[in-house]
Design a protein that fits this description.
mainly alpha, two-stranded antiparallel sheet, 5% strand, globular
Length: 123
């Protein structure tokens, strides 16, 4: 689909193509649940959706920085989900329709989209 490419000289490292970066592929993957939860706060911070203190707090809630002061992992995940959905609404209000239209233009009938891992070998 032209959104990710293998990093030259590696076998298992991928990066966004210029189109993937323009479409904020990593952020779309956050909202589709394709990243591990401990990666989400840093991605949201990189896109300016949360500040560094909020990212650190989310990592603390997830127990990613040692301990889990937020209580149970289930409750921490619920809070992260609520924070992510709130930020999705804010991001959509700042131009989400335009980004969705752009994805639909380049991927009109792609069916289910899987972004993780290398392409499947052809027979």
């Amino acid at each position: 689909m032209g959104l990710e490419e293998r990093v030259p000289g590696t076998t298992d490292t991928w990066r966004n193509t210029p189109l993937g970066s323009e479409l904020h592929l990593d952020l779309l993957m956050v909202f589709m649940g394709l990243w591990d939860e401990w990666e989400i706060p840093m991605i949201l911070e990189d896109h300016g959706l949360i500040d560094d203190l909020e990212a650190e707090h989310m990592l603390d809630l997830l127990g990613a920085r040692g301990g889990n002061p937020g209580g149970s992992p289930y409750r921490a995940r619920e809070r992260l989900n609520a924070d992510t959905i709130r930020e999705m609404h804010l991001a959509f209000n700042r131009g989400g329709r335009k980004a969705i239209d752009k994805v639909m233009k380049y991927l009109p009938d792609c069916g289910p989209v899987v972004f993780a891992g290398p392409p499947a070998p052809t027979a």
